[in-house]
Each structure stands twice: as C-alpha cells, then as structure tokens.
Amino acid sequence: MNTRDLVLVSLFAAIIVALGLLPPITLGFIPVPITAQSLGVMLAGTILGARRGTLSVALVILLVIIGLPVLSGGRGGLAVFAGPTVGFLIGWLPAAFVTGYLSERFAAGRANGFAQLANLFIAAVAGGVVVLYACGIVGMMLVAGLPFMKALSGSLAFVPGDLIKAGVAALAARAVQAGYPLLPVRS
C-alpha cells in the first residue's frame, strides 16, 4: 500500500465513525437500531473498491475492539460482539468487499454515466443490503435467539432506508468517478 491508499482507508474509516455520531433509531420489535454507518460501508466499497474499502471497515472494527466508542450511540469495546448487532458489525467486512468488488467489476472505467450509476447502485444493494442482512440475520438468530422468520421480518423494516442509502452511495461514487476516479478496474 502506498501513502495515498493509507490516507483513503483512514479517511473512509473516519467517515464511517462520523456517521456513527448520528443517533441510532431504535425499533421496538427488533433489537437492532437503524444507523447511518451502513451508508459509510457502502460509500467505502463503491468509491474505494474491494481491498481499500474492506480495509477501512476493518480499521473501524479494530477501533471498536480496542474500546473506542465509534459505533452509533457511543458504543465500543468487546461487549458489542456479544450483542444482537454483532452480525451486522461483522457483516460490514463482506458487505464492503462485495460492494467494492462489484463496483470494480461493473462500474469502474465505464463511460456511460447512467450505466455506471445503475451498476454502482446494484453493487451497493448487493453488498450493503443483501450480504449485510444475511450476516445480520444470522447474528440475531445466534446471539438474540430470534427465530429465522422473526429476524427476517424485523430486518425488512430497514430495507427502504437502506435502498435510499444505496442510492446516495451510488450518486456520491458516480460523482467521484466522474471527477477523480479511485476504483481499480477489473475485467
């Protein structure tokens, strides 16, 4: 990694942490709150790509492990890994990777702006919604003891907001790609 990569990884880790300053919205029927930090995960993947996006998320998780209150609601420390949100937290890693990989594969270097925007949106939904929810639902089942259907149906409340986040991430990534492309091109 060069200095530019280190700066970008650190910058996006800081963006994810900054999005944690927005207070979580708790729902009464599921033990996982709505937060803005999943937007940061989508942004990291769509703008930085698989490797650097995943490293930025890994840096945030490292900060959580050492006890810094960088998660939404001022949470941090090892106790977070024993709570019902652990699946979503750990799921940030594969979510950023899948989002970044798909962005590199289908959106990097594309000349057509609309096609690139659509591909970035699909990448953000695939990684930041599908992969993240799969990990989060498994985490709720294992840690909170929720049955699959309750964990799945409770998670559906997050879908509209996360689709908006995916759209925001795609728009931001498209703007960055148009002015200062950062995504590695995969074929």
Quick recap of the structure?
With 187 residues, this protein is mostly helical. The chain is built from 7 helices and no strands. It has one domain (3-179): Arp2/3 complex 21 kDa subunit ARPC3.
Report on this model:
This is Biotin transporter. Keywords: Cell membrane, Membrane, Transmembrane, Transmembrane helix, Transport. It is found in: Cell membrane. It is a multi-pass membrane protein. The structure is a single chain. By secondary structure, this protein is mostly helical. It has a single domain (3-179), classed as Arp2/3 complex 21 kDa subunit ARPC3. Helix content is 68%, strand content 0%. The chain has seven helices and no strands. The protein has helices spanning 3-19, 37-48, 50-65, 86-106, 113-144, 148-155, 159-179. Helix 1 crosses helix 3 (50-65) and helix 5 (113-144) packs antiparallel against helix 6. It is globular and about 45 Å long.
Q: What key attributes describe this structure?
A:
mainly alpha, Arp2/3 complex 21 kDa subunit ARPC3, 7 helices
CATH architecture: Orthogonal Bundle
Beta-strand content estimate: under 5%
Helix content: 55-70%
C-alpha end-to-end distance: 21 Å
The computed structural class is mainly alpha
Global mean pLDDT: 93
- Ranges where pLDDT stays below 50 over 5 or more residues in a row are none
Name of the level-1 CATH class = Mainly Alpha
Q: Write the CATH fold name.
A: Arp2/3 complex 21 kDa subunit ARPC3
Shape: globular
Cα-atom radius of gyration: 16 Å
